[in-house]
Amino acid sequence: ATGASVVGGFIHYANVVFVEFFSFSLPAVPLAVFAVLLSIYIAYHDVKVSARLMVYIELASVVLIGFVFALVLWQHGLHIDAAQFSLRGVNFSGVRLGVVLAMFSFVGFESATTLGEEAKHPLKNIPRAVIQSAILAGIFFILASYTEVLGYPAASSVSLADASAPMSAIATAAHFPRLGPVMDIAAAVSMFACTLACVTAAARVLFLMAHNGLVHSYCRATHSKNETPHAAVIVTGAVTMLLPAVMAAYKIDGELIYDWMGSLATYGFITVYALVAIALPLHLRQQKRLSPAIVVLASASVLAMLIVLEGTLYPVPPAPLNWLPYLYLLYLFIGIGWHGFQTRQQA
């Protein structure tokens, strides 16, 4: 679902770029198929190439965005935007909805854990990568949100929340309008990198599930030459492609695909993160390493997930967002039922 969501983001920003440069847009279905097929091709052949390509793409995007933000901050001078820190115009309902989007934007910081077999010194480097990802991404998100609110042109006829290409508007406000299309290109490429990341990570989860007998044994095959879980990559890519392609065929635009699939995916991450937070003190208690600080941390984590969940349920969103919790519960119960059936078969 996350992969389908960022494919929707790729469709949106790719067409923003085509309209800016060529004054026409491309059909959504071919764009979705292209993004996923290219991701499958890269993940199928070499995970190292896949990981490095994602790093280079995201690094270039972050550097470019950071440059524009620096220009905005320079033009506004060295001062604190009191309106933001005093929460002027902020309401509780808006914050709750924002927490859901922030949650979805932050998910995946732990993706390095899916590459344990390929990483050098995994017990050292993977925890370091997860912690640094959370800290650095968190700092960047805070600075980005502050600067976007500060620098978004007040005279714009479209609000920041409704802007289809907010970074272009901010680049224009910073008197560097030529950087706007470049940043839109970076956004489109970044959405593709996220698609590649989803296919790469999900394929390895599916690969492990196949080894544990949770899915068909076909998914545990590895390529004789590339040493990648190519079968799981194909299955993951096919499902990732199916969701946005079907929605695009029904004339649902990229922004809505991003919104709907991202909301659906958020339920899954809320479930997983909450279960990990619950499991942590239980695991440490078995090892006789449990401390009060861990209990407080785990409790705060579960509470945070409940707040995000509550933000998705109330006030009741419009259709089809109001259906998504029930679709997710149905999906969850099918998975639990399938696992129970397999457990009895093996017994």
Largest sheet: none
Number of strands: 0
Dominant shape: globular
Counting DSSP H or I runs of 4 or more residues, the number of helices is: 12
Strand content: under 5%
Characterize the structure shown.
The protein is mostly helical and 347 residues long. Helix content is 74%, strand content 0%. It has 12 helices and no strands. The chain has helices spanning 2-22, 28-45, 47-76, 82-85, 92-106, 122-151, 166-173, 179-211, 230-249, 254-286, 292-313, 324-346. α3 (47-76) packs parallel to α6. The longest helix is centred in the middle third of the chain and has 33 residues, at 179-211. The model has no long low-confidence stretch (mean pLDDT 89).
Care to give the gist of this entry?
It is built from 12 helices and no strands. It is mainly alpha-helical and 347 residues long. The longest helix has 33 residues, at 179-211.
Helices and strands, with pairings:
Blueprint: H1 2-22, H2 28-45, H3 47-76, H4 82-85, H5 92-106, H6 122-151, H7 166-173, H8 179-211, H9 230-249, H10 254-286, H11 292-313, H12 324-346
Helix pairs in contact: 1-2, 1-8, 1-9, 1-10, 2-8, 2-9, 3-6, 3-7, 3-8, 5-10, 5-11, 7-8, 8-9, 10-11, 10-12
Keywords:
347 residues, 12 helices, globular, single chain, mainly alpha
